[in-house]
Amino acid sequence: MQIRISWPSGHLTATLENTPTTETLAKALPLVSTARTWGEEVYFDTGVSVPRETDARQVVEPGTVAFWTDGDALALPYGPTPISQGDECRLASPCNVLGVIDDDPRRLAAIRDGDPVRVECLND
Fold it and tell me: Looking at the predicted structure, is the pLDDT value of residue 43 above 90?
């Protein structure tokens, strides 16, 4: 599944794997939320609640599309967070990994805390 994530100054696309979390998220799209930033990570509430999957990870690659089950939010890291060790992308807690951003994940740096964010499915 491919999604588009849009904010006032730009947008990007991401490809998601077929996971239980992705299936639940897809049913909630399109969604509009408010962006929050935490170091070099953007996250936002989805209104979706899912359990943590067995392969959830806390340290991921830049550009990973993750679902933070503790906050019912999509988490989009593009660099270190306040709890990272070195240059790693360390999320607040283990997250369900959904897929990857298709574009340069550094484009997420254009999102400001409080920006409106829209997520929509590109292929039905």
Answer: yes
Measured CA angle at 77 (ends 112, 121), to 5 deg: 80
Round to whole Å and give the CA distance between 121 and 117. Answer: 14
The structure's pTM equals: 0.96
DSSP assigned state of 69: T
The string of pLDDT tens digits covering residues 55-103 is: 999 999 999 999 999 999 999 999 999 999 999 999 999 999 999 999 9
- DSSP at 112: P
Count Cβ atoms within 10 A of the Cβ of residue 50 and give its class: 0-12 exposed, 13-18 middle, 19 or more buried.
middle
Distance (Å, whole) CA 1 – CA 124: 8
For residues 52 and 96, what is the distance between their CA atoms, to the nearest angstrom? 6
Cα gap 52→58, rounded to integer Å: 12
d(CA 77, CA 90) in angstroms, rounded, equals 8
